[in-house]
Amino acid sequence: MALSDLKFIFWFLPVFMIIYVLAGAKLKRIVLPVSGLCFYCFGAGIPGLIFYIGSALLNYVSAILISKTAGGIKKLILILTLLVNSGVLLFFKYANLISVIIPEGFGFRSVLPELVMPLGISFYTFSFASYVIDVYRGTIAADRDIITYSGYAAFFPKLISGPIVKYGEMQEKLKSCGTTRENIEEGFCTFVIGFGMKVLIADSLAPVWEHILSIGFESISTPLAWIGALSFSLRLYFDFNGYSLMAMGIGKMCGFDLPANFDLPYLSRSISEFWRRWHITLGTWFRDYVYIPLGGSKNGKLRLILSLSAVWLCTGIWHGSTFNYILWGLCLLTFILLERFLLNGFLEKHPAAAHFYVCFVIVQTWVVFAIPDIRDIGNYFTRLYPFLRKANEFVYFQDYVEVLKSKWPFLAAGIFFCLPFFRKWYEKNRKSPVVTVMLFVVFWASVYMIAKQGSNPFMYCSF
Question: 413 with 421: CB under 8 angstroms?
Answer without folding.
Answer: no
